[in-house]
Amino acid sequence: MKSIPNQQLDAFVDGQLDQNDRIEILDAMGGSGEIRNQVAETRRLKDLVRLAYQDQRAQSKRSSQPQTKYTSHAVAAVLGALSMLFLIQLINSPAEFGPTLKNMEMAGMEGDTEFTPAQLRMPEQVLFHLSSGDQQVGRELLDQVELVASEYEKTGRDLRIIVVTNNEGLRLYQAGYSDHADRIHELYARYDNIVFAACGTTLGKRIMAGEKVELLPEVIVVDSGVAEITRRQQQGWKYIRI
Amino acid sequence: MFSRLVKRKRVNQRVIAIRDRMFRTAFAWCHDHMLAQDLAQEAALKAIENAAQLNDLKAIDAWIFTILSNCHRAHLRKVIHMDELDPDEVGSIEPNLLPDQVSETRGLIEQVKMALEGLGEEQRKVITLVDLEEFSYAEVALILEIPIGTVMSRLNRARRQLKQRLLVRPIPGTTSIAYLKRKS
Question: Is A117 close to B58, i.e. CB distance below 8 A?
Fold first, then answer.
């Protein structure tokens, strides 16, 4: 049975390995309950560390519960006008009193801008999920990603975006197949806060089936699209299914 | 090539946009609200002042956090004689400084914070940057000005220690073991 060095497992959980190394570990996990446990424990630890400091925004109006309810409505309203409405809501959600560009200007930046914990807020966090291989749907997804990113940039608010694709959605990230390689490259260069993440499970399946899959250079591989989505939802990320 | 003015504007905007992250990280490092505010503000100003030195605009966050790390280190040097301590072994935070400590029931979050306080300073900085700020190992190496191998070994040691404290020992008054080991 293969034994994997602890630091390698750390790097796997932290997304620091390249594709080949990731697949090697996924493989090892498949064959070893102990390695799976170690990975699960490390992942759990990561979540706990994040959790420990998320209550810094305890005085924020937002809590994770209402968000989860809302996003499940959003899931039901998958495509078209309804998802656009949700996006508009997202963009126009009342900016909490925090050190945004606008607020800093109002407060008079040159003076003492003291911010207390009540004023601090976490960045907006949005996860987009694509499992369709349709190029048109892929384009709509990128349209929405770009819309949200540019709106937030205009207002100076902090935003994080992850775009997860799995199953047929992986095609969007596949070199030689995707119609949108250039667009992804541009978005990646233009915005610091967008992560394009491919599902390692889907990728693994394709490779096992003998397919040669080359991912675009801007794409990282996460162990499992579904696991990533679940984790982020538990952390309070907004979820948009395209 | 970006002009000094463009760089300065960019750094200015960025520093405002991520100031809450800077506070959060500074707090994670020192567990002191006032000090964390000071450090974040100091780092923000320093970043703007030194904007011309920023070479790679895409690595702007890592650059800003490097400044934050330096401010933190400079502060430590004032209060502790660094050569007396092994940065990997000693927990440098007094548990009593936890501002929002609930004395009766220790929730899971408090347990985690206590466990993090018990880590060596340098270990805590590494694990904060990796888990909280999600910098890559290479970025963390740059920010803390240590080799990438040291990043990985400190991270691993930190995690091992945390696992000992949080995932193995029964925590009195809670069912934390069952909770932590439950598959999510």
Answer: no
